[in-house]
TrEMBL record:
Keyword Repeat applies: yes
Domain of life: Eukaryota
Pfam families cross-referenced by the UniProt entry: DYW_deaminase, E_motif, PPR, PPR_2
Biased composition range(s): Polar residues: 67-83
Annotated protein name in UniProt: DYW domain-containing protein
Family: Belongs to the PPR family. PCMP-H subfamily.
Extent of Low complexity compositional bias: 44-55
Skewed-composition ranges (Pro residues): 25-43
PPR repeats: 153-187, 223-257, 356-386, 387-421, 591-625, 730-764
Region (Disordered): 23-91
Keywords assigned: Repeat
Length: 900
């Protein structure tokens, strides 16, 4: 005798969208009560369809669905003559089971059984349509639906509309809804939820308005879940105002209503408001937060860097019993990553009883955000399961930490293992290639991306490729992609990439020209604005920089700290130190970069005392100084009115204990510069022996420059020898050495150095000076005759030289590097780029206005002397910014006090 057990009833909650209407042939308001399945009345046909399972299922290969339908009926059930009645609850149970276990054959078997028994189509059709749609059998669901069109009802239509919307057939769902409207069947609350699901996926705001109007007209706005669906539709379309309006007008709210409102606010980055909504929700007694609420509020706390709020939410979750759940714990990891310490994250991770792939991936992201690349890699290796997302997290983390080559190696491993590559993966790898700045590798990666077929079809990848090419020196390819791309006219990312690329490759005028010629529909972002402001600072383009300042104010980016820092730096680099100070004082918040920018501005104007005063204010304000801060502060002691070397020495020796900053070669080089300024070269030499590491080229350059200024050829020769050993291919090193020999009159050694440069194919960076007149950059090189006004310029400079000679100017031919006759040396000196630019400025500016000249290298001593005499002869102020800072020539004196 075979023992049997009755089939377990599947809960109707398995179907969350329509919990009742899908499972029964009648709407909830009219559905009759069914008798309890365990005690059917004698006249009920339910017992005739009761199925039983054997205790020991037969071995292979009978599928689960076949076992259920072929099991013999128990003898105590009704006779076969009773099996021709309507379906029982077991038919619905079987369909629920088929959905739960994704058993297609079981669903089709139930369908076949229903067809064989010639049951009424309206009794089981809703459940069949729902089951087929959930199993992904859209065609079968449509077939059942069409068979029932002779006697359809609102439940069948609603089920079909909902299923189509969730299966990716949103337009078909909308069409079916309007078809239902043309019949005598009126939509109910479930119909509206179904059509709003289609609106969500289509992001069709106009259709959402029409459905909303119909909901109000038919009186279904009082149904909470209909209003929730309306809120979800508006939220997907980014209309916070309509979400708020629906939320405020709801007669009743549930947890979903609050969750939708909070999630919408978080989506709009209004984190403080989201936390306030959560507190309002807690004040309503009948509502208690669920897991989704806590996860969303934790995202708000992380986004707003609200440490106390996040801790309170964490505590609330523990009290409510949500702490062990995965989604809450994953949100907590993200919160502590952004607001806490790595110890908080590790403690939470280790205490989690269950971890999924999202947990492991967020842990990798946390380690990367804290700069712990090795620990992130170890965590990745320990993952029990990896996917494309976890690989992408590790790749992106390597890029954020400047590990471009490491990311490229990981990418090669992904390709070898056959891992899925998506657009995000390729974008990260392209960025990693840009970090490496290796032209050959960039060409290989570029070819791989094109082979994958993503190059011209993705704006994101195309923008990344443009940026990569600019970083790797492939400007021709970047320009070709930019101008021949599909949607570059309206793609702000590509415009920003090209503007940054021009700036990065020294094409400053091209960067400004591209920015000015952008289409009106291209939205200016903070990166493009900061880049153009940096270009204005590099060129000394003060007028255009002020226009960008006005643009930042107009588009609402002036409160951005990064823009503020760049504006401060721009004003200082353009010679307007007062403007930089004024804007710095107006900034609402200052970070470390803000203070660094302002101190750097003081140093550009050789105002060491002003920089040190700013340093005192920064210590009182509280921002933590970084290595750049201390380098600027140390350098400031070289430009003070009095000798403060002792204070500088104390700061240098105490930075490790006071600020937890290890002395670097750059910091040593700054201290050497200060010692050189105050003629303490012997101490600078002794400093070499006390360094805990081998000095790099930066340190030796500082010592070489100090030796050049003090004409100490012994110290200079020692530094030059070390630089050549460290960087034998750097042409600037040979130029420094040649200048040192020439300044001390050792012509033979200077010529030998220049000959060695020629043999190795090195060329010095040409001296370039420029002046901005009528919104145009006018550039000059030594003995340059390409300017359209060169004849007037040369005539004017000859007159100036004669007038200056009358006042005592004598050409200093020691600054001529070529070993030529004396009269030729004078000819070389007379037409240096700085003299040509200053003369052009005298010809084109109004009387009494200062002349502003920019120069890419340090001004030579003869030009420096000449311009002092010019300031007396023409009674004009001449401002020159070279690589060392600003020189303000006025009444025969220079602001640098002849030390640069």
């Amino acid at each position: 005798m075979v023992a049997t057990t009755t089939t377990t009833t599947i809960a109707a909650a398995y179907f969350p969208t329509f919990p009742h209407s899908i499972l029964s042939p009648h709407p909830p308001s009219t559905r009759p009560s069914l008798p309890h399945p365990s005690k059917p009345p004698s006249s009920s046909p339910i017992s005739s369809l009761s199925l039983s399972l054997p205790n020991k299922p037969k071995p292979p290969p009978i599928p689960f669905s076949a076992q259920i339908l072929t099991n013999p009926l128990p003898q105590n059930h009704a006779t076969s003559s009773d099996t021709d009645g309507p379906p029982t609850e077991n038919h619905f149970n079987l369909l629920r089971t088929s959905v739960r276990y994704n058993d297609v054959e079981l669903a089709k078997a139930v369908h076949a059984s229903a067809l064989k028994r010639e049951e009424p189509k309206t009794t089981l059709s809703n459940a069949l349509v729902s089951a087929y749609l959930k199993l992904g059998l859209t065609t079968d669901a449509v077939r059942v639906f069409r068979q029932c069109l002779s006697c359809p009802d609102v439940v069948l239509y609603s089920t079909m509309i909902s299923g189509l919307a969730k299966s990716g057939y949103e337009l078909e769902a909308v069409s079916l809804f309007f078809r239902m409207r043309k019949t005598e069947i009126e939509p109910n609350e479930f119909s509206f939820v179904a059509i709003l699901t289609a609106c969500n996926r289509l992001l069709d705001l106009e259709l959402g308005f029409q459905v909303h109007s119909l909901v109000v007209k038919m009186g279904y706005v009082c149904f909470t879940y209909v209003s929730n669906a309306l809120m979800g539709s508006y939220s997907k379309c980014g209309r916070l105002d309509f979400v708020l309006q629906v939320f405020d007008e709801m007669p009743e709210r549930d947890v979903v209503s609050w969750n939708t409102m909070i999630a919408t606010v978080v989506k709009e980055s209004m984190y403080d408001w989201a936390i306030e909504l959560f507190r309002d929700m807690q004040r309503v007694d009948e509502f208690s937060a669920d897991r989704f609420t806590l996860s969303t509020v934790l995202v708000a706390c992380a986004g707003g860097r609200n440490w106390n709020g996040g801790r309170q939410v964490h505590a609330h979750g523990i009290r409510m019993g949500f702490q062990p759940t995965l989604n809450v714990n994953n949100a907590l990891i993200d919160f502590y990553t952004k607001c806490g310490s790595i110890r908080d994250v590790e403690t939470l991770f280790e205490s989690m009883p269950v971890k999924d792939i999202i947990t492991w991936t967020e842990m990798i992201t946390a380690y990367m955000d804290f700069g712990l690349v090795d620990l992130a890699s170890e965590t990745f290796d320990m993952m029990p399961e990896k996917n494309c997302v976890s690989y992408n997290a590790l790749l992106a983390g390597c890029c954020r930490n400047g590990e471009g080559m490491r990311a490229l190696g990981l990418f090669c491993k992904m390709v070898e293992e056959g891992m899925e590559l998506d657009e995000f993966t390729l974008t990260i790898v392209i960025n990693a290639c840009g970090l490496s700045t290796d032209m050959k590798i960039s060409e290989q990666v570029h070819g791989f991306v094109l082979k994958c077929g993503f190059g011209s079809n993705s704006n994101c990848i195309e923008s990344a490729l443009i940026d990569m090419c600019t970083r790797c020196g492939r400007m021709d390819e970047a320009e070709k992609m930019f101008y021949q791309g599909l949607d570059n006219v309206s793609c702000p990312i590509n415009w920003t990439s090209m503007i940054c690329g021009y700036s990065r490759n020294g094409k400053l005028e091209e960067a400004i020209s591209l920015f000015c010629n952008r289409p009106s529909e291209v939205v200016v972002d903070e990166i493009a604005l900061a880049t153009v402001l940096g270009v204005c600072g590099a060129l000394g383009y003060h007028v255009f920089g002020k226009q960008i300042h006005c643009l930042a104010l107009k588009i609402g980016l002036l409160n951005d700290t990064g823009i503020g820092n760049t504006l401060t730096s721009m004003y200082c680099k353009c010679g307007n130190l007062e403007g930089g100070i004024k804007f710095f004082d107006m900034m609402s918040t200052h970070d470390t970069v803000s203070w660094n920018s302002m101190m750097g501005g003081h140093l550009l104007h050789r105002q060491g005392d002003g920089a040190l005063d700013l340093w005192s204010k920064m210590e009182k304000a509280g921002p933590q100084p970084d290595e750049d801060t201390l380098r600027l502060v140390i350098s400031s002691y070289g430009y003070t009115n009095s000798n403060l070397v002792e204070k500088c020495r104390i700061l240098f020796l105490s930075m490790r204990t006071t600020y937890d900053i290890e002395p670097t070669p750059e910091l040593y080089a700054a201290f050497v510069g200060v010692l050189g300024h105050w003629d303490l070269l012997e101490e600078a030499g002794q400093l070499i022996n006390s360094m805990p590491f081998e000095p790099n080229a930066t340190f030796w350059r500082a010592l070489l420059d100090a030796g050049r200024i003090s004409l100490n050829t012994r110290i200079g020769a020692m530094a030059a020898k070390q630089i050549l050993a460290l960087e034998p291919l750097d042409p600037s090193t040979y130029v420094l050495i040649a200048n040192l020999y020439s300044a001390s009159g050792r012509w033979q050694c200077a010529e030998k150095t220049r000959e060695e440069m020629r043999k190795k194919g090195f060329r010095k960076i040409p001296s370039r000076s420029w002046i901005i007149n009528e919104n145009k950059v006018h550039s000059f090189y030594t003995r340059d005759e390409r300017h359209f006004q060169s004849r007037d310029i040369y005539s004017a400079i000859d007159v100036l030289i004669l007038e200056c000679m009358k006042s005592g100017y004598a050409p200093d031919t020691s600054f001529v590097l070529q070993d030529v006759e004396e009269y030729q040396k004078k000819d070389f000196l007379y037409y240096h780029s700085a003299k040509l630019a200053a003369t052009y400025g005298l010809l084109t500016t109004k009387r009494g206005e200062p002349i502003r000249v920019m120069k890419n290298v340090a001004i030579c001593g003869d030009c420096h002397t000449f311009l002092k005499f010019v300031s007396v002869v023409v009674r004009r102020e001449i401002i020159v910014r070279d690589s060392s800072g600003f020189h303000v020539f006025s009444k025969g004196q220079c602001s640098c006090k002849d030390y640069w």
